[in-house]
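Hey,
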Amino acid sequence: MDLADRHAPSRLRTLPSWLLNQTALVASRLVGDELARVGLRRPHYAVMAALQEVGPASQADLGRRTTIDRSDMVATLDELGEAGLLDRAPDPTDRRRNLVTLTAAGRRRLRQLDRTLADVQGELLAPLSAGERRQLVALLTRVLDHHAATLRSPS
């Protein structure tokens, strides 16, 4: 946190929404800086993680799973393809669309990124014990899952 954040009005420092936002800013900077150091961005990691989890997928399905906009998805896939981290090939069941697949190099890079991001999580959550980290993840997951329907539906 920036020095100004530590001196924020106490009224703000008691609001979970403010605390979550400030922590998210720190987390975003830490993750973004570390991914940039290895020449990648968050959407690259999200796409690779989705492909590892679900296997070959269409561009549209990847967009839904990662919440990456269609126009940004094209650029992200192009960048990952140029780096040799994924392949695109016509879907044998529907020649109008492509299936995106993680390459062996992509799987290796994803394992490296997982280790790197685990280190970043450790840095972010350094003041917490292992049990407190698990509890924080469980609580944040509960809050996010509760609001998932609201986040997905247009208001």
